[in-house]
Amino acid sequence: MIEPYDILSKRVNLLRDGFEGRYKYIIRALLNKQFKAVAGRVTADNMRSDLTNIIDEYPLAKLFDDLYTKVGVTFARDSYGNKKAISETDLIDRWEQYMKDYARRKAGDRIVSITEMTRKQIRDIIGSVIETATAKGLGAEETARLIRKELVKQGQEINRWRSLRIARTEVGTASSAGSLSGIRALGMPFDKVWIAAGPARSGKERQEHQALHKTAIGGDELFNVGGGMEGPHDPAGGADQVINCRCTLTYRIRRT
Q: What whole-number distance in Å separates Cα of residue 111 and Cα of residue 58?
């Protein structure tokens, strides 16, 4: 008996919530570390220079690699179910490699975007403090001290909500990609079904996603949203269709 879609959606979101809860703290710690690293380099002599060049993409890329692999394999195994492959270890290895490749191909632009936003936020804080300090007639040493203080303080405030948004978005993308990989491993024809997140859950859900609620299409087809998406969280839809999305992708095996 097929489970009702609301039960499926609830189970998927419970799995996601666990990963979101873990990775939001890891992401927050990384972002805070980047703000502190710049703060530690601010001096009276260099505070008007662009110090954000010390922030690179590698730590975030490494974090995404871990997130996509762990989340993706978990959801691949979930959609694959209790079926046994000829070699379960080989199947998991395939999923792990697929998710690593997926993170590098599909999430690469997000890593760049997140890093650039971090740099912009840091530059904005520094510029604001310099402007305020100049208006107050503060000296260079005092201004540099204020910059260091505000980078740490404001960085922590910004990253508290930002880390949750990033974690929710990336866990969603990894979970959908992983579940698709798992269902395809069955080697059976299937349909994909888009389950929209309810307004009660998200507070404000995209109308395009609500219109797709319970829409079923073939496993290799694209949903008619965001220029064509494999399912919720597909990066091909663009940021407007993906960030903070709580929709769910589920499946129906075709009976022939």
A: 9
pLDDT in tens, 27-83: 999 999 999 999 999 999 999 999 999 999 999 999 999 999 999 999 999 888 865
Q: DSSP labels for 13-34?
A: HHHHHHHHHHHHHHHHHHHHHH
- Long-range contacts, stretch 109-114, CB < 8 angstroms, 24+ apart: 109/235, 110/64, 110/169, 110/170, 110/235, 111/57, 111/60, 111/61, 111/64, 112/57, 113/239, 114/60, 114/166
Alpha-carbon distance of 37 to 34, in angstroms, equals: 5
Q: Please list the residues that pair with 223 across neighbouring strands.
A: 229
Domain boundaries, the chain: 5-188
Structure letter (DSSP) for residue 53: G
Residue linked to tokens 């070699």: 87
User: CA–CA distance from 50 to each of 11, 54, 120 (Å)?
Assistant: 46, 9, 10
Q: Is the pLDDT of residue 95 over 90?
A: yes
- The sign of the torsion formed by the CA atoms of 31, 69, 231, 24 equals negative
